[in-house]
Amino acid sequence: MTNTAKKNEVPDPNAFEFGFHGGYTISHLAGQYASVMMVIIEMIQNALDKYGKNIFVTLRLSNNRTKNFLKVADDGEGATKDELRKRFGKISSKQKGSDKIGHKGIGNLAPLSIANRYSMITRTKDIPYFRFSIDKEQIIQMEKIGSRFEDVEQKQIFENNLPMTTLITVRSIEPSALKAISKSDEPAVLIAEEISDRFSDRIKQLNVKVVINVENENCAPIERAVVKPQEFPGRKEEITIETKRGPVVFEMYVSNKKHRKPKILVNHQSKFSFSFSNLSDIWQPYQEIFDCGYLQGIIRLDFCELNASRTGFEWNDDLMVFSEAVDEFVKNHAKGFMADLEDESKNERRRQVALEVLDSVYDMFGSNPNLELSALVGLVSAGHKSTGQKGSLTDEGYRTRQYTPKPGEDEDDDEQDDAPKKKPSLLPKKGKEKNMTHQSVSDPTGNRRRRVKGQKGLTIEFAEGSPEKGYRWRVRLEKGIIQVNVSHKDWQEAEDAGKISLRTYIVVLVVGILTLCHVPEEYKIIFGECYDSEFFKFWKLLIPKIGRPAAKK
Question: Among 501, 495, 463, 502, which residue's Cα sits nearest to residue 479?
């Protein structure tokens, strides 16, 4: 064919060439996308970039490589032929005078890092479906690599009865790329959690539904999972650190429940997230804080440069600025969160111990109906002043009496008492009622108290000593509520000794109060004084590590 004929030749509108060097591209792909999980993440990213509202991932697992395949469908904007020519025409061209390869656009070929064949069917609002395919062998062997667009006869492609605009299929996947997912007992959940970690913000903002289906070689379903946007339990604390490159927002969630695998994510430009632990040089100095299990959340920033695999940042001046922001957050804020958490954990331990004591009391009543303590409900202190000297259960200022509410006053401070008015019973009915905890309240002196309410209204309240009420009392009754003094030295010793010691201590206090309810009025003061001065000393021997002489060396 003459040169003139070549010039007059009409270009094939369905043919196009890839703008990359085959050998270098495959080598780079192998380093960046070594697992099917990384390939799925890249394909989800592309679907979100096209504003897909429904994305379906299907992964077939088989010991036979030829039967393995990955399929991702979405209902986004799709692509035109010209757009694909541009996208695949500028991928990772070899730089002159260097063996280094650029990674711009390399993610479009991510599936070829783990599989032999890649195909795409797509359409736009105005253009019908067309297809093109790429074979890895073709890339490796040919110097000039190209493909052809082919028309697709199907008028519509459906997934879960929804019309899709783009369908990407990857076949003959390397077994090594499937190893981690194949070993998982919940492969679909594993994939869904990874997608949530990476794209939680975008999925939530765009209201995207992502469904993962994993099946065996016979097309039988193994597991199905729906991606849920990341939500962290606990108290939200949002701190913004201003830097010369822009703000760094620490959206942290503090919980008194320890998580076995806590997550701290870094979100870049509200588009892509990765685990903070990937930035090991910044993470490791503060691992004790961020990996403690009580702190989770997201760190948001718009500066820094993502690396090629989008699993971290490039090392540059911007990353140093980010590191300084993390340092400021830990020193000025995170350590304070941990101190607050320690207080919350202490309150939670107290609550749990009190619930155990209340359960034990009701178990005792259930086994011994003759011990029904109907007299307990309605007991109240006679006044709000005490000498605070004897510290007795029944100092003159705290002689128990039947409480009669004033007009318009509820019997309970926080809620209407649902106990019967005539000889109320503390015995549980069939089907144990759940114990409940009241919210924190403040008494007239400003002391912070916490109530733990058991069945039928029996309540333990954590209180503190005060000038008005005295400091040396251990336990008292007020409006039918058993108050224990958490500022008393015996309480503090019991709490420091551990949960078992604290439980035994509270049992001793509650036993004293319940016994007091059955003591005739004329003997209450005597009983209280004897209990404090003599009987309580004896019972302290039952409390581990309290009241026991030190072992001789």
Answer: 463
Q: Is 413 helix (H, G, I), strand (E, B) or coil?
A: coil
| pLDDT above 90 coverage of the chain, percent | 38
- Give the separation between CA 511 and CA 501, rounded to whole angstroms: 15
Exposure class string for 20-31: b at 16+ Cβ within 10 A, else e: bbbebbbebbee
Rounded average pLDDT over 359-386: 56
pTM of the shown model: 0.64
C-alpha distances out from residue 262 to 119, 252, 257, Å: 38, 12, 11
| 544 Cα distance to chain centroid | 37
Rounded to an integer, what is the distance from CA 429 to the centroid of its chain? 37
The CATH number of the structural domain formed by 235-336 is: 3.30.230.10
Beta strands 295-301; 264-268: pairing state: parallel
In which band, very low, low, confident or very high, does the pLDDT at 99 lie, cut at 50, 70 and 90? Answer: very low
- pLDDT of 107 over the 50 cut: yes
Q: Report the 10 Å Cβ neighbour count for 553.
A: 3
**Rounded to the nearest 5 degrees, what angle is found at the Cα of 285, between the Cα atoms of 282 and 291?**
90
**Two domains, one topology: 14-226 and 235-336:** no
* Residues 6 or more apart whose Cβ sits within 8 Å of residue 314: 304, 305, 306, 307
pLDDT digits (tens, 9 = 90+) for 50-69: 999 999 999 999 988 889 99
CATH T-level topology, domain 14-226: Heat Shock Protein 90 (3.30.565)
What is the average pLDDT score of the chain?
78
**Angstrom distance (rounded) from CA 549 to CA 447:** 34
* Apex 447 CA angle, 443 and 453, nearest 5: 65
Extract the tokens encoding 67. 């039967």
Q: How confident is the model at residue 412 (pLDDT cuts 50, 70, 90)?
A: very low
Pairing of strands 481-485, 475-478: antiparallel
pLDDT at 9 over 60: no
Q: So what's the pLDDT on residue 364?
A: 76
Q: Delimit the domains of the chain by residue range.
A: 14-226, 235-336, 372-405+420-540
Containing 42, the helix (H) or strand (E) segment is helix 36-49
**CB 309, CB 38: distance < 8 Å:** yes
| Distance from C-alpha of 498 to C-alpha of 480, rounded to nearest angstrom | 28
Q: 141 — phi, psi (to 5°)?
A: -90, -30
Give the three-class secondary structure for 108: helix
Range with lowest mean pLDDT among 174-188, 345-359, 427-441: 427-441
